[in-house]
Amino acid sequence: MSRQITRVATVMLVLFGALFINLNVISLIQSDDLANHPANRRLIIREYQIDRGPLVVDGEAIAFSTETDGDLRYLREYAEPELYAHLTGYYSFILQRSGLEAALNEELTGQTTEMLAQNLGELLGARDRAGNAVELTVRARVQQTARDALGGQEGAVVAIEPATGAVLASYSSPSFDPNPLSSHDPAEIRQAWEQLQEDPARPTADRALRETFPPGSAFKLITGAAALERGIQPDTTFPDETTYDVPQTTADIGNFGGGTCTGGGQITLADAMRVSCNTTFARLGVDMGDDELVDMAEAFGFNRQPPYELGVATSAVPKSMDVPSTAQSAIGQRDVRATPMQMALLAAALVNDGELIAPRLVEAVRDPSGRQIRGPDIDTWSDGGFGSQAISPRTASQLRQMMVAAVNDGTGTRAQISGVEVGGKTGTAQTGGDPVAWFVGFAGDEVAVAVVVPGAGPNATGGAVAAPIARQVMEAAVAAD
Prior knowledge:
The protein has helices at residues 2-29, 31-36, 41-47, 81-88, 99-103, 105-109, 116-123, 140-150, 186-198, 220-229, 269-275, 278-288, 290-299, 323-329, 340-351, 393-409, 462-480; strands at residues 55-57, 60-67, 74-78, 91-92, 96-97, 133-136, 155-160, 167-173, 237-239, 243-244, 253-254, 266-268, 362-366, 372-374, 422-429, 436-443, 447-454. The protein has 481 residues and is α+β, with helices and mostly antiparallel strands.
């Protein structure tokens, strides 16, 4: 009998020990993860007792909290909601958080390490905690111009300050109103969400950051960079041919319009960039090979995710290609895909003498008293074995000169701004449907921009559709500087 009691006691001790260990694992190791899990409804309810800090653009709150009489003490509201929806996201009792409301939740609720003293004060019975104000890098005038210039067309604009990585505009069209999603009425939230999800225009899709598109001829900046880095010069000549006979396939590559690029004979690399000559860049891609093309694309950030407060889809180039795929990829077709953010970072790197800058949205974080507790985090982009110097300063300078020529007297003339040196590269990607129109460029050293307009019509081109949009955005950025 005593042996059986001993066995039972031993089993009970083991079980209690396991329970003790499990409770300690939960309380000491997993507590933070469990407390901050987005599915933890109690966390959301507790947060609604906090006067959540505002998101601020040019001194004006674009997202702010107002006190209510309900069980959920504060209601999140959005000024000019559709203008900033893809940036702010929503703060919802049912849907949780998205956009900056999710990415900057600790700052907005005052839970950052910088606010430790304030948080301890709350625990000791001090006044209710208020969140921190987050000042954004976005400039209202530039963001508004991006919206107005798109004019309701599907598309996106990203504008970046090259020296600092400050995002001056990030606009995706169509947009949506996050206010109904942030309501305290569950029925209103669900109805609004269902309507958004059923809308064939996909207004909640962030085309600036989360969607990738074939870059078309805008990708020739990558191909050109690879050629220059291997020693080819801007005045190096190539056959100016109507079609390039691609090895290993009967699908030859022709130029836009079906003729030669400059009348036949020979064409320089600089002129090929200026008039966006498909045959020249397809030939270059095959001559260099897929390894050099992929290496250069990755040096600029393709096949990597940019460091950014908001998630960015990875722009992609296949790592291994046959000869026909390499020829088509060299002109931004086939399986090459890019986000507007990635292409804006490419343009910014060329302004920065070939160095990649990390994009950022936060200019400052201030506590409720107005004291700055965090300033701008300006940094370069290097990760995964890649340094921030994508190409040499010399190559960057040569590409800039080619882009200026393209705007002065090439495919990008509609991006010209009086009194400002503008450089750019147009792109018109064929997709089987309406083409995808691009413009990627810069105005002086003040702004780098990428514009994409998919489905603008069967005859749309980057020069006719995207370049005028870019010009308006760049003008606004230069004027707002």
